[in-house]
Amino acid sequence: MSPGFLARVRWPNVAIALGVAALLALLVAWPALSPSTPALPPPVAAVTPAATPEAPVATPRPGSPRRRARPRRSAPVRAQRPHRRRASRPAPVAGVVATVAPAVPPPPAPAPRVARIAAPAREFHGFER
């Protein structure tokens, strides 16, 4: 290869072409590069629950009178009242008149400053007469 040929090659285009080729190769090889799926554990024998013994029946102790159990009373049910929406403004109080303070105008803006324009300086380049 001659140096003239290497000088004419557009290297950014070569880099882009190599990048696209590498991306396509990665895309094709992706399934082979991915890890295998994890193996499932071996099946376990089905566990049957043991027969549950019957709960012992409570027998009253001899000589102790058993009280009659009183039924539990549930709490009284309250009637739910509908929710009222809050007013956006409080209601006016009778006999009170709202007064609004007069708006104070902002102070006047200062007058713009006028810049004095100086006469342009004459440039001397060394060859004018």
Low-pLDDT segments, ≥5 res: none
* Mean pLDDT across all amino acids: 76
Please tally the helical runs, counting DSSP H or I stretches of 4 or more residues: 2
The strand count comes to 0
Strand content: under 5%
Short description:
This protein is an all-alpha fold. The protein has helices spanning 3-8, 11-33.
Please specify the SSE layout and strand pairing.
Blueprint: H1 3-8, H2 11-33
Task: Provide a descriptive summary of the structure in words.
The chain has 129 residues and is mostly helical. The protein is 22% helix and 0% strand. The protein has helices spanning 3-8, 11-33. The protein starts with a helix and ends in a 96-residue tail after the last helix.
Brief descriptors of the model:
single chain; 129 residues; mainly alpha; 0% strand; flat
